[in-house]
Every structure is written in C-alpha cells, then in structure tokens.
Fold:
Amino acid sequence: MIINPYIFDGNCVPITGGSSLIVNGFTNINQYPAYGLYDYSWVSLIYSQGLISVPRQIRGIEIEVSGYSTPYTYLNQTIKMAHIPSSTNVFPLNPQVDWSDLNPTNITICKVFNWTINANGLIEILFDQNFCYNGVDNLVLGWENRDGSWAIGYGSAESLANSNKGAYKNQDNSYPTGTGFRLSYSMKLRLLY
Structure:
C-alpha cells in the first residue's frame, strides 16, 4: 500500500468531483507522457500555483494523446507529484532526474500501473493515492516509464509551448539517471479533484 506522506492541515481537502483544465495545447510532443521509441523514459513538468490557485485533493489527471496504434501498452509506469517552491518556475539548464535540484516536498507516488491506450483522444487516469495540493507552492508532475522495451505504434501527447516547463530523458537498456534536458512545452493537463 502506498502511503501519502503529506496531509494538508491535518486533513486533505474534500473531493468535490470537479475538474479544471490548467493547460490546453495542440502540439504533439513524443516525449510526453512516455516516449515509446525508447526502453525507458523520464518526464517532469512544472505547473505554477497560479494555474491551480486553491488547495485541492487531486484524485487523477486527464491528458490527450494522438498518433497511437491501438491498443498500445506501456508496462511499469509511475506517476508522482510534489510541491516545489513558488520561486521555481522553470527547470534548470541540466535538470536532475531525481528532482534534487527542485527542492521538492511532499513527494507522493500517485499511481503505479500498466497503461493500455485503447483509443486516441482524452484519457482519464485515476490515482491510487491522491495528492493533497496546498494551494501555495508550484506543482511538479513526474512520469516514469520503466517498460524496458520499445514498440512500434507509439504516439504523443497534446502540449502547449511554454518556456522550460518540461524536462525529459530517454534511453535504452536502463532507467535514466543523472541529468536530463529541458523542453519548452507543457503537457495538456486537466486535474481531477
């Protein structure tokens, strides 16, 4: 069982059954959320407090994918979230895969799963462990692709040009470590709360 190490004010904000689109986008980015050309990939995205604005118990996300031959399956995926200081608005030149350069707090593993894409378009992913967003800090979302192989038919996620709000690293044979690369796109994201 995954335990959330962060409880907002002693209790998470109640789930309201709502959602909010915090970033829209129409550009296809192959690195997001997982790059099927490589055995392994790491992606991180910064979303500013101004986009989310208030404390929320985030129970899932919705993203939009395109270009996949369906069904397409990624094994061993992990989604995690954390708070980072509001002064950290972009990734540094050589972003650390382990987030050590972002001063994260309240790192929460939200979902560990095998992900099968049955159709292109909007995809809802409900978390196994909610993330209690505090309404003050920026949010960093991480997606770890530990599939271990690549398969033809991979696609991309809809994204928006946004200077240095993304980071990635792809490689074969083993999961990435060390530093990655900045990417000036934010993945289209709807928060479910």
About this structure: The chain has one helix and eleven strands. The longest helix spans residues 49-52. The chain has a mean pLDDT of 94. The radius of gyration is 15 Å.
